[in-house]
Amino acid sequence: MIEELKLPELGEGIDSVEISEIRVKAGDTVNVDDVVLVVETEKATMEIPATSAGTVKDIKVKVGDAVGPGGVLMTVEAAGDSASKSESSQEEQSPAKSASSDETADETSADEKPASEEASSKKPQPKPERPAVPQPEKGEPTPELEPRKSTGNAPPLASPAIRKFARELGADLERVSGTGPKNRILKSDVEAYIKQQVTRAQSGAGGGVGIPQAPEIDFSQWGEIETIGLNKIRRLTGQNMQQSWQVAPHVTQFEEADITALEAFRKSEKAAAEARGTKLTILPFIMKAVVAALKAFPDANASLDPSGESLIRKKYYHLGIAVDTEQGLMVPVVRDVDKKSIMELAEELADLSERTRERKVTPAELKGASFTISSLGGIGGTYFTPIVNTPEVAILGVSRAAMKPIWRDGEFVPRLILPFSLSYDHRVIDGAAGARFTKFVSDMLSDIRRLLL
Ligand code: CAO
User: Cα(107)–Cα(377) distance, rounded to whole angstroms?
Assistant: First the structure.
C-alpha cells in the first residue's frame, strides 16, 4: 500500500515552509519517526519524521521548494508490501547471483541487503549538537571548488540551518559554491568545502590553505642529488613560517643605533661578568631596550584575537630568543625581562641557549613569548627581514655592529653602529608606529642611561 507523507500543521501562522534538506532517497527504507526531511521558516528549522514504515517510493519535493501544511512530501510503500516483494524477488534470483552476493558480503549493494540491516544503516541519525568536521577518506579525490562566483552585493543563498551549520564549522559561505537551485548552498556544499580545506591543510609544507601543491620534480635528471629527511624541528619551523607569512601581512622597518658608548660600558663590565661565570654580550641590553619600547608601544606586545575583532595586550614581557641549533631554529623564552637585571639576563641567556642547543630545554620554556628577538649579530650581515613569530605581532632582527664614519659637528667620527630591523604584522601595527618603535629602541641603545628612566 502506498502512503503519502504530508507536511503536518507546524503551528499558528506558519502557512509555508522551505525544504532545506532531504535525508532519504527513493528506495531507502524508513521506520516511523525516522527524520526524512528538514524544513525551515524564517526563524526556525524543523525535522519532519516518517509517519509510516516502508520503502520511499517517490520524493515529491526538492531542496528550496516552498510547501504548505498538507502538501505531499513523498510516498512510502508500506513495510509489509515491500518485504513480500523483496522475498519474491530473492526467490527469483539466479543461483550464480546469490553465490556472488554471499562471497562479497561487504560489497553487497543496498538493494541486496536484508531489510533489517538496510534499515539500520539508512536510519537517519538524530541531528548532532555540533557536527564533526568531515575528514577526507584516504585516496578519495577532493572536489575542487571554485570560490563562489560574485553576485554583486547579494549574500550567498543559503537557509538559516545551513548558515548555522557553516558557522559552527567556521566556513565562510562567501567562499562556498552552491549546487542547489539558483546556486543555493546546500549542506553537502559546505561539507565539500570543509573537506577541501582540511585536505589542503593536511597536505603539508607544499600545500597550505590556498597554496597550490608544489609539483614533484625529478632533479636527478640534471645531475647527482641526495635526499635528506627533515627533522621535526625543521618541519614545524617550516609550517609555522609559512602560516605566519600567509596570515600576517609583513612590513619590515630598518633602523640603526650608535652603540659606541654601550660597547665601551659592556667591555668595562665584561670582567665582572666573567667573575660571575657569565658572558656579557650586547643582547641583554637590547632585550632591556625592547621591553622599554614594548611598554611605550603596548600594541607591539599583543596578539590579535582569532576573530580579528580585538587586540589582546599582554601585561607581561616574555621575550622569545631565536637560537641557532644543529637541529634547526628554536625559540626559548626568557620570562619577565622587565624584572631582571642585565647581568641576570646575561646569565639566563647563556644557560637557556646552551640547554637549547643541547636539547635540554623543556617544552614549557619554549612557550609564552609576547615578542621575539632574532640576533644574527654574532655571525654577520647588515639587515635582514625576520618573520613574525605569530600569534605575536612583531619581531626584532639584530645584525652585526660595525665601525662607521658618522658625520657629526662638521666632521666624520668613527662610531659603532648596530643595524637592526623590526618586522611587524601590518594588521596591528601601522608604518608610523613601526618607525616610532624602532627609533625608540635606537634612542635607548644609543644612550643606555635612558633605560634607567
Ligand atoms: N654586533 C657585533 N657583535 C655581536 C653582536 C652584534 N649585534 N651580537 C653578538 N656579537 C658578538 C658577541 O658580543 C660575541 O662576541 P665576544 O665573543 O667577543 O664577546 C659574539 O658575537 C658571539 O655572540 P653570541 O652569539 O655567542 O651571543 P649573543 O648573546 O649575541 O647571542 C644567541 C645569543 C643565542 C641569540 C645566538 O648565539 C644565536 O643563536 N643566534 C642565532 C639566532 C638565529 O639563528 N636567528 C635567525 C632566526 S631566523 O629569523
Answer: 66
